Batch of 3 targets.
Target 1
Amino acid sequence: MTTNLENRDIAATNWIKLSFYTTSIIFNLCLIAQVLTVGVAYFSNPDWWNIHVWLVRGYSGLSLILLVESLIAPFSGRIRGLTASLPVLLGIQFSSIHLNTPLHFEVLHPLIGFVLFYVSSSLVHHLSREVFKKSDAVAES
Protein backbone atom coordinates (compact mmCIF):
# COMPACT_ATOMS: atom_id res chain seq x y z
CA MET A 1 0.00 0.00 0.00
CA THR A 2 1.34 3.43 -0.85
CA THR A 3 1.31 6.42 1.42
CA ASN A 4 0.45 10.00 0.55
CA LEU A 5 4.15 10.89 0.69
CA GLU A 6 4.99 8.21 -1.89
CA ASN A 7 2.16 9.44 -4.13
CA ARG A 8 3.53 12.99 -3.91
CA ASP A 9 7.00 11.75 -4.83
CA ILE A 10 5.60 9.88 -7.84
CA ALA A 11 3.57 12.93 -8.90
CA ALA A 12 6.61 15.23 -8.56
CA THR A 13 8.77 12.82 -10.56
CA ASN A 14 6.13 12.54 -13.27
CA TRP A 15 5.82 16.34 -13.43
CA ILE A 16 9.60 16.71 -13.86
CA LYS A 17 9.65 14.02 -16.54
CA LEU A 18 6.76 15.60 -18.40
CA SER A 19 8.44 19.02 -18.19
CA PHE A 20 11.66 17.47 -19.50
CA TYR A 21 9.79 15.79 -22.35
CA THR A 22 8.09 19.09 -23.29
CA THR A 23 11.40 20.96 -23.21
CA SER A 24 13.03 18.32 -25.42
CA ILE A 25 10.20 18.68 -27.96
CA ILE A 26 10.64 22.46 -27.99
CA PHE A 27 14.39 22.01 -28.50
CA ASN A 28 13.73 19.63 -31.40
CA LEU A 29 11.23 22.04 -32.99
CA CYS A 30 13.80 24.83 -32.73
CA LEU A 31 16.31 22.65 -34.57
CA ILE A 32 13.76 22.01 -37.31
CA ALA A 33 13.07 25.74 -37.58
CA GLN A 34 16.78 26.43 -37.78
CA VAL A 35 17.26 23.97 -40.63
CA LEU A 36 14.30 25.48 -42.48
CA THR A 37 15.59 29.03 -42.03
CA VAL A 38 19.04 28.16 -43.36
CA GLY A 39 17.38 26.54 -46.37
CA VAL A 40 15.29 29.62 -47.05
CA ALA A 41 18.35 31.84 -46.55
CA TYR A 42 20.45 29.82 -48.97
CA PHE A 43 17.89 29.17 -51.69
CA SER A 44 15.53 32.13 -51.52
CA ASN A 45 16.16 35.10 -49.26
CA PRO A 46 19.52 35.77 -47.53
CA ASP A 47 17.77 37.91 -44.89
CA TRP A 48 16.69 34.66 -43.22
CA TRP A 49 20.30 34.04 -42.22
CA ASN A 50 19.87 36.42 -39.29
CA ILE A 51 16.91 34.37 -38.05
CA HIS A 52 19.01 31.21 -38.39
CA VAL A 53 21.72 32.74 -36.19
CA TRP A 54 19.20 34.23 -33.75
CA LEU A 55 17.48 30.88 -33.27
CA VAL A 56 20.59 29.03 -32.12
CA ARG A 57 21.47 31.82 -29.73
CA GLY A 58 17.94 31.69 -28.36
CA TYR A 59 17.44 27.99 -27.84
CA SER A 60 20.95 26.72 -27.06
CA GLY A 61 20.37 27.41 -23.36
CA LEU A 62 17.64 24.77 -23.44
CA SER A 63 20.34 22.12 -23.78
CA LEU A 64 21.75 23.14 -20.39
CA ILE A 65 18.28 23.17 -18.82
CA LEU A 66 17.72 19.67 -20.20
CA LEU A 67 21.07 18.54 -18.83
CA VAL A 68 20.22 19.77 -15.32
CA GLU A 69 16.74 18.22 -15.46
CA SER A 70 18.18 14.90 -16.63
CA LEU A 71 20.34 14.79 -13.51
CA ILE A 72 17.39 15.57 -11.22
CA ALA A 73 14.84 13.08 -12.53
CA PRO A 74 15.39 9.32 -12.52
CA PHE A 75 16.10 8.76 -16.20
CA SER A 76 17.90 5.90 -17.88
CA GLY A 77 21.56 6.16 -18.80
CA ARG A 78 20.59 6.31 -22.46
CA ILE A 79 18.51 9.45 -21.95
CA ARG A 80 21.18 11.05 -19.78
CA GLY A 81 23.81 10.27 -22.42
CA LEU A 82 21.75 11.74 -25.24
CA THR A 83 21.03 14.81 -23.14
CA ALA A 84 24.68 15.30 -22.18
CA SER A 85 25.68 15.18 -25.84
CA LEU A 86 23.43 18.12 -26.80
CA PRO A 87 25.54 20.90 -25.22
CA VAL A 88 28.71 19.17 -26.43
CA LEU A 89 27.43 19.06 -30.00
CA LEU A 90 26.26 22.67 -29.79
CA GLY A 91 29.73 23.66 -28.57
CA ILE A 92 31.31 21.86 -31.50
CA GLN A 93 28.76 23.55 -33.80
CA PHE A 94 29.75 27.00 -32.51
CA SER A 95 33.44 26.13 -32.78
CA SER A 96 33.17 24.73 -36.29
CA ILE A 97 31.65 27.90 -37.67
CA HIS A 98 33.69 30.48 -35.71
CA LEU A 99 37.19 29.01 -35.76
CA ASN A 100 39.20 29.69 -38.89
CA THR A 101 41.78 26.97 -39.32
CA PRO A 102 43.86 25.84 -42.27
CA LEU A 103 42.04 22.48 -42.09
CA HIS A 104 38.64 24.12 -42.82
CA PHE A 105 36.65 22.48 -40.03
CA GLU A 106 33.70 24.70 -40.99
CA VAL A 107 32.75 22.12 -43.63
CA LEU A 108 31.74 19.86 -40.74
CA HIS A 109 29.13 22.40 -39.57
CA PRO A 110 26.18 20.92 -41.53
CA LEU A 111 27.18 17.36 -40.63
CA ILE A 112 27.33 18.23 -36.94
CA GLY A 113 23.92 19.87 -37.35
CA PHE A 114 22.48 16.63 -38.72
CA VAL A 115 24.01 14.68 -35.83
CA LEU A 116 22.53 17.21 -33.42
CA PHE A 117 19.10 16.78 -35.01
CA TYR A 118 19.43 12.98 -34.88
CA VAL A 119 20.40 13.03 -31.19
CA SER A 120 17.60 15.45 -30.34
CA SER A 121 15.01 13.36 -32.23
CA SER A 122 16.29 10.18 -30.58
CA LEU A 123 16.00 11.86 -27.19
CA VAL A 124 12.36 12.79 -27.85
CA HIS A 125 11.64 9.24 -29.04
CA HIS A 126 13.27 7.54 -26.05
CA LEU A 127 11.66 9.98 -23.65
CA SER A 128 8.18 9.34 -25.00
CA ARG A 129 8.66 5.62 -24.43
CA GLU A 130 10.06 6.07 -20.93
CA VAL A 131 7.76 8.83 -19.69
CA PHE A 132 4.52 7.32 -20.90
CA LYS A 133 5.44 3.73 -20.06
CA LYS A 134 6.10 4.74 -16.47
CA SER A 135 2.89 6.78 -16.32
CA ASP A 136 0.84 3.79 -17.50
CA ALA A 137 2.44 1.54 -14.89
CA VAL A 138 1.65 4.05 -12.12
CA ALA A 139 -1.95 4.43 -13.33
CA GLU A 140 -2.49 0.67 -13.21
CA SER A 141 -1.40 0.33 -9.59
Target 2
Amino acid sequence: MSKIIYDVIQRFEVEDGVPRLISTNIQVIEGGEDLMSLAISLLTQLGFYDKFEENRTSQYIGYRLKNPVKGSKRYQLILAQRKEGLCISIPINSFESELLELYAGTSYYKTIDVYGDPDYETIKYITLARLWILSSKEDVFLSNLSPHYAEMFKGDITGKFCLNYYAEGEEGNISWKEIILFPPEEFDIKALGDSSSYLLVQEDKLFPYAWQVSISSSEVLEEFLGHFAKILMEAQ
Protein backbone atom coordinates (compact mmCIF):
# COMPACT_ATOMS: atom_id res chain seq x y z
CA MET A 1 0.00 0.00 0.00
CA SER A 2 1.40 3.42 -0.94
CA LYS A 3 1.60 6.19 1.63
CA ILE A 4 0.19 9.65 1.22
CA ILE A 5 2.02 12.51 2.95
CA TYR A 6 0.25 15.80 3.56
CA ASP A 7 1.69 19.19 4.48
CA VAL A 8 -0.99 20.98 6.54
CA ILE A 9 -0.83 24.67 7.45
CA GLN A 10 -3.54 26.08 9.69
CA ARG A 11 -3.93 29.75 10.64
CA PHE A 12 -5.70 30.87 13.80
CA GLU A 13 -6.92 34.21 15.06
CA VAL A 14 -6.96 34.71 18.82
CA GLU A 15 -9.46 37.13 20.36
CA ASP A 16 -9.87 37.47 24.11
CA GLY A 17 -7.77 34.34 24.55
CA VAL A 18 -10.06 32.25 22.31
CA PRO A 19 -8.44 30.77 19.13
CA ARG A 20 -10.52 30.70 15.94
CA LEU A 21 -9.50 28.80 12.80
CA ILE A 22 -9.45 31.17 9.84
CA SER A 23 -7.80 29.08 7.09
CA THR A 24 -6.40 25.64 6.27
CA ASN A 25 -4.00 24.81 3.45
CA ILE A 26 -3.39 21.14 2.60
CA GLN A 27 -0.75 20.10 0.07
CA VAL A 28 0.14 16.58 -1.04
CA ILE A 29 3.90 15.89 -0.97
CA GLU A 30 5.71 13.64 -3.46
CA GLY A 31 2.59 13.00 -5.53
CA GLY A 32 1.03 10.87 -2.83
CA GLU A 33 3.91 8.42 -2.36
CA ASP A 34 6.96 8.95 -0.17
CA LEU A 35 10.44 8.11 -1.46
CA MET A 36 11.03 5.10 0.79
CA SER A 37 7.80 3.47 -0.36
CA LEU A 38 8.65 4.28 -3.96
CA ALA A 39 12.12 2.73 -3.58
CA ILE A 40 10.66 -0.50 -2.17
CA SER A 41 8.10 -0.60 -4.97
CA LEU A 42 10.81 -0.12 -7.61
CA LEU A 43 12.99 -2.86 -6.12
CA THR A 44 10.01 -5.23 -6.14
CA GLN A 45 9.31 -4.48 -9.82
CA LEU A 46 12.96 -5.07 -10.72
CA GLY A 47 12.99 -8.50 -9.04
CA PHE A 48 15.50 -7.39 -6.40
CA TYR A 49 13.80 -9.48 -3.71
CA ASP A 50 14.48 -12.65 -5.68
CA LYS A 51 18.19 -12.40 -4.78
CA PHE A 52 18.26 -10.18 -1.72
CA GLU A 53 16.64 -10.34 1.68
CA GLU A 54 15.49 -7.29 3.61
CA ASN A 55 16.48 -6.34 7.15
CA ARG A 56 14.58 -3.45 8.74
CA THR A 57 15.84 -1.41 11.68
CA SER A 58 14.70 1.88 13.18
CA GLN A 59 17.45 3.71 11.25
CA TYR A 60 17.61 1.99 7.87
CA ILE A 61 16.58 -0.89 5.62
CA GLY A 62 19.50 -3.09 4.56
CA TYR A 63 19.61 -5.66 1.77
CA ARG A 64 22.01 -8.59 1.74
CA LEU A 65 22.25 -11.65 -0.49
CA LYS A 66 19.99 -14.58 0.36
CA ASN A 67 22.81 -17.04 -0.32
CA PRO A 68 26.04 -15.11 0.30
CA VAL A 69 29.52 -16.45 -0.18
CA LYS A 70 30.89 -17.73 3.13
CA GLY A 71 31.94 -14.79 5.31
CA SER A 72 30.26 -12.23 3.07
CA LYS A 73 27.27 -10.82 4.91
CA ARG A 74 27.62 -7.12 4.15
CA TYR A 75 24.65 -5.14 2.93
CA GLN A 76 24.70 -4.53 -0.81
CA LEU A 77 22.10 -1.76 -0.62
CA ILE A 78 21.03 0.45 2.30
CA LEU A 79 18.05 2.82 2.39
CA ALA A 80 17.75 5.45 5.12
CA GLN A 81 15.02 8.08 5.34
CA ARG A 82 16.32 11.50 6.35
CA LYS A 83 14.73 14.92 6.65
CA GLU A 84 16.48 16.12 3.48
CA GLY A 85 15.52 13.05 1.43
CA LEU A 86 16.24 9.35 0.97
CA CYS A 87 19.85 8.30 1.50
CA ILE A 88 21.04 5.29 -0.52
CA SER A 89 24.33 3.52 0.14
CA ILE A 90 26.10 1.02 -2.12
CA PRO A 91 29.45 -0.80 -1.61
CA ILE A 92 32.39 1.10 -3.06
CA ASN A 93 33.42 -1.72 -5.40
CA SER A 94 30.01 -1.56 -7.12
CA PHE A 95 30.00 2.22 -7.23
CA GLU A 96 33.38 3.70 -8.15
CA SER A 97 33.57 2.65 -11.81
CA GLU A 98 30.32 4.56 -12.43
CA LEU A 99 31.53 7.86 -11.00
CA LEU A 100 33.30 11.02 -12.04
CA GLU A 101 35.98 11.76 -9.43
CA LEU A 102 38.01 14.95 -9.06
CA TYR A 103 41.14 14.91 -6.97
CA ALA A 104 44.23 17.05 -6.44
CA GLY A 105 47.68 17.04 -4.90
CA THR A 106 47.62 19.43 -1.96
CA SER A 107 51.08 19.19 -0.39
CA TYR A 108 54.52 17.62 -0.52
CA TYR A 109 55.99 15.54 2.24
CA LYS A 110 59.33 13.79 2.58
CA THR A 111 59.96 10.15 3.27
CA ILE A 112 63.06 8.06 3.98
CA ASP A 113 63.31 4.44 2.91
CA VAL A 114 64.39 1.68 5.28
CA TYR A 115 67.96 1.70 3.92
CA GLY A 116 68.52 5.34 4.80
CA ASP A 117 68.76 6.57 1.23
CA PRO A 118 68.26 10.30 0.59
CA ASP A 119 64.90 11.85 1.19
CA TYR A 120 62.48 12.19 -1.68
CA GLU A 121 59.27 14.14 -1.98
CA THR A 122 55.83 12.59 -2.33
CA ILE A 123 52.60 14.37 -3.17
CA LYS A 124 49.61 14.00 -0.89
CA TYR A 125 46.39 13.67 -2.90
CA ILE A 126 42.82 14.21 -1.68
CA THR A 127 39.45 13.68 -3.33
CA LEU A 128 37.57 16.93 -3.92
CA ALA A 129 34.30 15.51 -5.24
CA ARG A 130 32.69 12.31 -6.47
CA LEU A 131 29.69 12.63 -8.78
CA TRP A 132 27.21 10.31 -10.42
CA ILE A 133 25.92 11.90 -13.62
CA LEU A 134 22.31 11.08 -14.49
CA SER A 135 22.18 9.33 -17.87
CA SER A 136 19.12 11.37 -18.81
CA LYS A 137 21.03 14.61 -18.19
CA GLU A 138 24.50 13.93 -19.60
CA ASP A 139 24.02 16.63 -22.22
CA VAL A 140 22.85 19.12 -19.58
CA PHE A 141 25.90 18.38 -17.43
CA LEU A 142 28.40 18.72 -20.27
CA SER A 143 26.83 21.82 -21.79
CA ASN A 144 26.90 23.71 -18.48
CA LEU A 145 30.53 23.03 -17.56
CA SER A 146 32.96 25.91 -17.24
CA PRO A 147 35.52 25.98 -20.12
CA HIS A 148 38.25 24.65 -17.81
CA TYR A 149 36.35 21.47 -16.93
CA ALA A 150 34.94 21.00 -20.42
CA GLU A 151 38.49 20.89 -21.79
CA MET A 152 39.59 18.50 -19.06
CA PHE A 153 36.75 15.97 -19.37
CA LYS A 154 36.45 16.04 -23.18
CA GLY A 155 32.99 14.48 -22.96
CA ASP A 156 33.85 11.79 -20.41
CA ILE A 157 31.44 11.50 -17.48
CA THR A 158 33.24 8.73 -15.61
CA GLY A 159 36.82 8.32 -14.47
CA LYS A 160 39.33 10.13 -12.28
CA PHE A 161 40.65 13.58 -13.10
CA CYS A 162 43.45 15.45 -11.35
CA LEU A 163 43.19 19.23 -11.04
CA ASN A 164 46.95 19.71 -10.72
CA TYR A 165 48.94 20.74 -13.78
CA TYR A 166 52.58 20.94 -14.75
CA ALA A 167 54.61 24.05 -15.50
CA GLU A 168 57.52 23.46 -17.87
CA GLY A 169 60.39 25.56 -19.12
CA GLU A 170 64.06 25.76 -20.02
CA GLU A 171 66.93 27.71 -18.51
CA GLY A 172 70.04 27.49 -20.64
CA ASN A 173 70.66 23.80 -21.24
CA ILE A 174 68.42 22.72 -18.36
CA SER A 175 64.80 21.71 -18.85
CA TRP A 176 62.53 21.75 -15.83
CA LYS A 177 59.07 20.50 -15.00
CA GLU A 178 57.18 21.35 -11.83
CA ILE A 179 53.78 20.22 -10.58
CA ILE A 180 51.48 23.05 -9.50
CA LEU A 181 49.51 22.06 -6.43
CA PHE A 182 45.77 22.80 -6.26
CA PRO A 183 44.52 24.33 -2.97
CA PRO A 184 41.31 22.49 -1.92
CA GLU A 185 39.71 25.75 -0.81
CA GLU A 186 39.77 26.96 -4.41
CA PHE A 187 37.57 24.11 -5.62
CA ASP A 188 34.07 25.35 -6.43
CA ILE A 189 31.54 22.64 -7.20
CA LYS A 190 29.24 25.29 -8.71
CA ALA A 191 31.69 25.51 -11.61
CA LEU A 192 30.49 22.05 -12.62
CA GLY A 193 27.24 23.58 -13.80
CA ASP A 194 23.65 22.43 -13.30
CA SER A 195 23.44 20.56 -9.97
CA SER A 196 20.23 18.82 -11.08
CA SER A 197 22.28 16.77 -13.57
CA TYR A 198 24.32 14.90 -10.96
CA LEU A 199 24.32 13.44 -7.45
CA LEU A 200 27.09 14.18 -4.99
CA VAL A 201 28.56 10.94 -3.63
CA GLN A 202 29.90 10.89 -0.07
CA GLU A 203 31.28 8.40 2.43
CA ASP A 204 28.79 6.52 4.59
CA LYS A 205 29.93 7.01 8.18
CA LEU A 206 27.81 4.12 9.49
CA PHE A 207 28.95 1.68 6.78
CA PRO A 208 32.57 2.58 5.88
CA TYR A 209 32.66 0.07 3.01
CA ALA A 210 29.93 1.99 1.20
CA TRP A 211 29.37 5.36 -0.47
CA GLN A 212 26.12 7.29 -0.20
CA VAL A 213 23.88 9.66 -2.14
CA SER A 214 20.92 11.72 -0.95
CA ILE A 215 17.87 11.90 -3.22
CA SER A 216 14.86 14.21 -2.89
CA SER A 217 13.20 13.65 -6.28
CA SER A 218 11.11 10.65 -7.33
CA GLU A 219 12.34 10.94 -10.93
CA VAL A 220 15.99 10.86 -9.83
CA LEU A 221 15.26 7.96 -7.48
CA GLU A 222 13.75 5.92 -10.31
CA GLU A 223 16.76 6.51 -12.54
CA PHE A 224 19.33 5.84 -9.82
CA LEU A 225 17.75 2.63 -8.50
CA GLY A 226 16.93 1.41 -11.99
CA HIS A 227 20.63 1.71 -12.85
CA PHE A 228 22.30 0.37 -9.73
CA ALA A 229 19.82 -2.33 -8.71
CA LYS A 230 20.55 -4.05 -12.03
CA ILE A 231 24.31 -3.73 -11.47
CA LEU A 232 23.99 -5.29 -8.00
CA MET A 233 21.81 -8.15 -9.26
CA GLU A 234 24.04 -8.93 -12.25
CA ALA A 235 27.18 -8.93 -10.09
CA GLN A 236 25.90 -11.84 -7.99
Target 3
Amino acid sequence: MSEIKLNTALTMEEIADNFQDVNFFEGVTAGLNEALAYEKGTAKAETIARKRSLPDVNVAEVRNSLSLTQKAFAAVLGVSSRTVEAWERGKSIPTPTAKKLMFLISQDHSLVQKLQTQ
Protein backbone atom coordinates (compact mmCIF):
# COMPACT_ATOMS: atom_id res chain seq x y z
CA MET A 1 0.00 0.00 0.00
CA SER A 2 1.31 3.46 -0.88
CA GLU A 3 1.78 6.25 1.65
CA ILE A 4 -1.09 8.72 1.97
CA LYS A 5 -0.20 12.27 0.91
CA LEU A 6 -1.86 15.13 2.77
CA ASN A 7 -1.97 18.61 1.24
CA THR A 8 -2.30 21.13 4.05
CA ALA A 9 -0.80 24.36 5.29
CA LEU A 10 -0.50 22.83 8.76
CA THR A 11 2.72 21.33 10.02
CA MET A 12 2.77 17.76 11.30
CA GLU A 13 3.14 19.17 14.83
CA GLU A 14 0.00 21.31 14.39
CA ILE A 15 -1.94 18.32 13.07
CA ALA A 16 -0.77 16.21 16.01
CA ASP A 17 -1.79 18.99 18.42
CA ASN A 18 -5.27 19.16 16.84
CA PHE A 19 -5.81 15.46 17.54
CA GLN A 20 -4.02 15.32 20.87
CA ASP A 21 -7.18 14.93 22.96
CA VAL A 22 -9.13 12.83 20.45
CA ASN A 23 -9.69 9.18 21.27
CA PHE A 24 -10.78 7.66 17.97
CA PHE A 25 -11.52 4.25 19.45
CA GLU A 26 -13.89 5.73 22.03
CA GLY A 27 -15.59 7.78 19.30
CA VAL A 28 -16.15 4.78 17.06
CA THR A 29 -17.33 2.65 20.00
CA ALA A 30 -19.76 5.36 21.13
CA GLY A 31 -21.12 5.67 17.58
CA LEU A 32 -21.63 1.94 17.25
CA ASN A 33 -23.37 1.74 20.64
CA GLU A 34 -25.58 4.64 19.65
CA ALA A 35 -26.49 2.94 16.35
CA LEU A 36 -27.26 -0.30 18.18
CA ALA A 37 -29.48 1.50 20.68
CA TYR A 38 -31.27 3.29 17.85
CA GLU A 39 -31.88 -0.04 16.07
CA LYS A 40 -33.22 -1.61 19.29
CA GLY A 41 -35.47 1.40 19.91
CA THR A 42 -33.69 2.37 23.13
CA ALA A 43 -31.77 5.39 21.82
CA LYS A 44 -31.59 8.55 23.89
CA ALA A 45 -33.81 11.43 22.82
CA GLU A 46 -30.86 13.50 21.58
CA THR A 47 -29.81 10.68 19.22
CA ILE A 48 -33.25 10.52 17.64
CA ALA A 49 -33.51 14.32 17.46
CA ARG A 50 -30.14 14.49 15.71
CA LYS A 51 -31.19 11.88 13.16
CA ARG A 52 -34.45 13.74 12.42
CA SER A 53 -32.95 17.20 12.23
CA LEU A 54 -31.91 16.98 8.58
CA PRO A 55 -33.79 19.46 6.42
CA ASP A 56 -36.08 18.09 3.75
CA VAL A 57 -35.00 19.48 0.38
CA ASN A 58 -36.39 19.10 -3.11
CA VAL A 59 -33.23 19.16 -5.22
CA ALA A 60 -34.95 20.14 -8.46
CA GLU A 61 -36.90 22.89 -6.70
CA VAL A 62 -33.76 24.38 -5.15
CA ARG A 63 -31.86 24.17 -8.45
CA ASN A 64 -34.72 25.68 -10.46
CA SER A 65 -35.15 28.51 -7.96
CA LEU A 66 -31.55 29.44 -8.72
CA SER A 67 -32.02 29.13 -12.50
CA LEU A 68 -29.06 26.75 -12.70
CA THR A 69 -28.50 23.77 -14.95
CA GLN A 70 -27.78 20.41 -13.33
CA LYS A 71 -24.14 20.82 -14.35
CA ALA A 72 -23.84 24.30 -12.82
CA PHE A 73 -25.63 23.23 -9.63
CA ALA A 74 -23.38 20.19 -9.35
CA ALA A 75 -20.33 22.43 -9.61
CA VAL A 76 -21.64 24.62 -6.78
CA LEU A 77 -22.19 21.57 -4.58
CA GLY A 78 -18.95 19.85 -5.55
CA VAL A 79 -20.62 16.76 -7.00
CA SER A 80 -21.08 15.40 -10.51
CA SER A 81 -24.02 16.37 -12.69
CA ARG A 82 -24.99 12.67 -12.71
CA THR A 83 -25.31 12.83 -8.92
CA VAL A 84 -27.68 15.81 -9.16
CA GLU A 85 -29.65 14.00 -11.85
CA ALA A 86 -29.91 10.87 -9.67
CA TRP A 87 -31.10 12.96 -6.71
CA GLU A 88 -33.74 14.66 -8.83
CA ARG A 89 -35.02 11.35 -10.24
CA GLY A 90 -35.05 9.71 -6.82
CA LYS A 91 -32.45 7.12 -7.77
CA SER A 92 -30.30 8.19 -4.82
CA ILE A 93 -30.59 10.58 -1.92
CA PRO A 94 -28.26 13.43 -1.03
CA THR A 95 -25.84 12.96 1.82
CA PRO A 96 -26.68 14.75 5.07
CA THR A 97 -24.02 17.35 4.29
CA ALA A 98 -25.41 17.96 0.79
CA LYS A 99 -28.94 18.27 2.20
CA LYS A 100 -27.80 20.86 4.72
CA LEU A 101 -25.89 22.80 2.07
CA MET A 102 -28.86 22.83 -0.29
CA PHE A 103 -31.13 23.94 2.55
CA LEU A 104 -28.78 26.83 3.36
CA ILE A 105 -28.57 27.79 -0.31
CA SER A 106 -32.37 27.73 -0.58
CA GLN A 107 -32.54 30.15 2.36
CA ASP A 108 -29.79 32.47 1.09
CA HIS A 109 -29.19 32.49 -2.66
CA SER A 110 -26.11 34.69 -2.22
CA LEU A 111 -24.27 31.62 -0.99
CA VAL A 112 -24.20 30.31 -4.56
CA GLN A 113 -22.05 33.21 -5.70
CA LYS A 114 -19.71 32.65 -2.76
CA LEU A 115 -19.43 28.96 -3.56
CA GLN A 116 -18.86 29.59 -7.27
CA THR A 117 -15.80 31.74 -6.52
CA GLN A 118 -14.11 29.04 -4.45
